[in-house]
Design a protein that fits this description.
Number of helices: 12
Strand content: 5-15%
Oligomer: single chain
Length: 275
Amino acid sequence: MTTLVTGATGNTGRHVVTELVRRGERVRALTRDPAAAEGRFPAGVEVVAGTHTAPETLGAALDGVDRLHVTVTTGLAEVGPALVRRAVDAGVRRVTVVWGGAVGPVEQAVGDSGVEWTRLEPQEFMSNTLDWIESVRAEGVVREPYDTPSALIHEADIAAVAAVALLDDGHAGRAYPLTGPASLTTRERIAILSRASGRDIVLAPITHEQAVDRLMSKGVSRADAEYVVGWYAAPDDAATTVVDTVERVTGRPARTFAQWAAEHAERFQAPRVRR
């Protein structure tokens, strides 16, 4: 059997590919630029060009695929139902979908598709911390408007749950909330990252509007920017409450933020000065 992983070079997708290969699955990795993905996947992975936001181009990518992993991203809401229809018509019989924060058109289409599906509902990804790289490397500073807690999850744990749901029986029709093992404030995350990277990092608070403007400068719409910053301003209980789904599904505890920080510590260290 073959699994198609969309967004295969993304923060979560690449871990899904690796986990499926580790379990002996045949994997087809979908990416916009196969040349840029060279060397990023384990041996034996079939890399194909394409994007899930253009489902009309995925005929060859879906050929012979039994299982599909989809991450809901910007731009997928409008075309996601068409992607699901094409996948089902091509013979896909099991789907995992990483939600976009709510049950929107894509999540609903998967639920109504008639195939076995599992919806993964992570709160904040630990990989969102990578947004701090530039300011930390240059100044040892993190600029955020709020110091609220978040039960953020390692992206590899999302992938581990996805692999179990794709390959093992007993997960069809389930919606799995996913968190890491602790709910951490921004300052607590910074302290852990400081220890891992071996440098002093401080929080320099910015205003709500400055945070919105920063996202808009990256091409995010005002509505989406307000939603994201508003999530940090007043996170709901699901965003801050630790659940044990990762351990129940995979049989091992969720990875800690300290583990994530150790894995990425070098990326946050100050640039070396050439002499």
